[in-house]
Amino acid sequence: MSDDDIVAHFARFGYRVSISQIAFTGETVQDFREARLGKWWKAGKLRQDEPGLLRIEEAQPRPDQRTRDVIVVSFGSSRAVMGVEIRPGAPPLKPGDATNRYAPVMEWAHPAKTTAASGKVVKAG
């Protein structure tokens, strides 16, 4: 699917988003279902729960995040997620990046960096 196709898919649910507001992940729709019930601060209202589709309104994944709608759509080997909190200064998602985990934290943050001297992983920003 092209970027335009993916954006149009979210528009069918009534949301105007750009491709840069959509996160892509290898996590399953089930991972998001489980995180919503077991890890999120407020689970929100479940509007659609089907194989390959999860639509939640007024969710608050963590107490320090705003309330928002979340949609997870399966496109085969990866999932497109609307509603991931994009932290200021976070870099754009790399095309085809399906390794990031969003379900528990719903945050698109600075990537972890390894310092050369210590070999320790530290959060940037």
Commentary on this structure:
With 125 residues, the chain is of the alpha+beta class. The protein has one domain (3-123). It has helices spanning 3-11, 29-38; strands at residues 22-25, 45-50, 53-59, 68-74, 79-82, 85-86, 107-108, 112-114, 121-123.
Structural descriptors:
125 residues, globular, 15% helix, single chain, disordered C terminus, five-stranded antiparallel beta sheet
Brief account:
The chain has 2 helices and 9 strands; from the N terminus they run αβαββββββββ. It has 125 residues and is of the alpha+beta class.
Report the mean per-residue pLDDT as an integer.
85
Q: Which structural class do the helices and strands define?
A: alpha+beta
Distance between the termini: 33 Å
Number of distinct helices: 2
C-alpha Rg, in Å?
Answer: 15 Å
Give the overall shape.
Answer: globular
Q: Return residue spans where pLDDT drops below 50 for at least 5 consecutive residues.
A: 121-125
Helix fraction by DSSP (H/I, runs of at least 4): 10-25%
Number of domains: 1
Largest sheet: 5 strands, antiparallel
Question: Which strand order does the major sheet show?
Answer: 1-5-4-3-2
- The succession of helices and strands, N to C, reads HEHEEEEEEEE
Quote the beta fraction.
25-35%
| Count of extended strands | 9
